[in-house]
Amino acid sequence: MLSSYRLYESELKEAFKKRFDNQTQSKNRTEFNRLMQKCKEGKIDLILTKSISRFSRNTVDALSWVRMLKSLDPPVHIHFERENINTADEDSELMLTILSSMAQEEAVSLGSSSQWAKQKLAEQGIVNVSRVPYGYDLDEEKKWVINPEQAAVVRRIFQSYLNSKSSRTIARELSEEKIESASGNNYWHQNSVDCILQSIFYKGCYLYQKTYSQDAITQKRLVNKGELPQYYIEDHHPAIITQEVWDATQELRESKKIKIKIMPEERREPQNFHKIFRCGQCGGILSHHLQYNYQDPKKGAKHYWRCIVSRGKNYSAKCSAQSFRQEYLEHNFMTALLEMRANERFQIEAEAVATKTDLTSEELAEVKAIEAKMEQLNQELYEAVDEELNKAGQDTKKVEALTDHIVKCKNQLDEYEE
Q: What is d(CA 351, CA 1) in angstroms, rounded to the nearest whole number?
């Protein structure tokens, strides 16, 4: 970058680190977005970067950002050192389109190759990770080693659970004793304790590929439900608890689940009220819980809603709110709905808002048509780029036209989403 910098009589304002080498979407790149904001504020008029792949591996993103920067007043240009492209030149966009498409294809190919290599290592019981769970550290050779202080907390959690303490009680005790949690604070949540109790990590095992990336561009993580092979690796790292303690813990957890399954049809949390109502005292979310009659299961369960703070889910805050029967909430909710229905002014305002925000059937059809068109244009763009690179054709105008169409389609989709 500095060699390019010397070509210009400019002041070096700031160096922005490329911290997320494997990111293909600009929304996940903190330093990149900070750079763009500086440009919009008029604090930068020239960007020097090593290569196109350092700037973006997503063709549409790259062209969108370049055009946005050129539209600023004054415009901000980019100099790509390796490709010797400067966006101030009139013919820069064509080469940028071709080379950024190659960078995107390289990212996809690299992601597939990397995933294949990781799977082959996993077949041999070798899994390299950048982060380890609570209770472990990574040594200089990236091997798992036990963190003595955290491991003692893990053993305590398992032993307390086997001594008939609930995960909620364990979390409260750890929070009251100000013991540091995995997140680095002194607050423990019940779910954190449950995750430790059911994690196979603590008996020295590892399950590879529980989740996977949908594709190299979006990098959306999905739960692996059989789409890809999974590898269960025993003795992958030092165990914190014994196999006997693990088995006893899981047996106890399953026995508690069996009691709940007496009335499976009533177990599911009503979704209509989930995370909607808030406590009038502290503002906490009302959570659902059931009160069972184990002596007479035929009577069914009673549904209650109570503030998560008053239930002790958050040990750093206090609340004295009582539980509400679901029938009470349903009655008052229906009463409020009937009152709104009878209010003509409310109906007019609600219909006006709905008209502005909801997409019509024609608009939804238009969105689908645009998405289909984008997919077709992307395929045509790749084919046109291949033709240009293989010198089978000289239709450079076609590449430019396809690029314009893709960006225009993306902007149209963004307008619908907004």
A: 56
Rounded Cα distance, 400 and 413, in Å? 20
Q: Structure tokens of 415?
A: 């307008």
- Tens-digit pLDDT profile for residues 301-343: 778 888 877 766 555 567 888 887 888 878 888 888 888 888 8
Phi, psi at residue 76, to the nearest 5°? -110, 125
* Closest to 289 measured CA to CA, from 266, 258, 272: 266
Q: What is the pLDDT of residues 215-233, one digit of tens each?
A: 544 456 777 777 777 778 8
Q: What is the residue type of 339? A: E
For tokens 């370049």, what's the residue?
A: 66
Per DSSP (E only), the strands in 35-184 are 46-49, 77-80, 85-86, 136-138, 144-146
d(CA 54, CA 103): 9
Instruction: Kindly report the CATH class assigned to 2-114.
Output: alpha beta
Q: Which two tokens stand for residue 384?
A: 């046109």
Strand, coil or helix: 199: coil
% pLDDT > 70, the chain:
65
Query: DSSP assignment of 232-249, as one string?
Result: EETTSS--SS-HHHHHHH
Fold classification of 125-260 is Hect, E3 ligase catalytic domain fold (3.90.1750)
Structure tokens, 122: 């996993």
Domain residues of the chain, as ranges? 2-114, 125-260, 264-344, 361-417
Does pTM top 0.85 for this prediction? no
Between CA 104 and CA 107, with CA 106 as vertex, the angle to 5 degrees is: 65
pLDDT at 170 over 80: yes
Q: Mean of the pLDDT values across residues 228-250?
A: 89
DSSP letters for 359-395 = PPHHHHHHHHHHHHHHHHHHHHHHHHHHHHHTTS---
Task: Determine what percent of the chain is predicted with pLDDT higher than 90.
Answer: 13
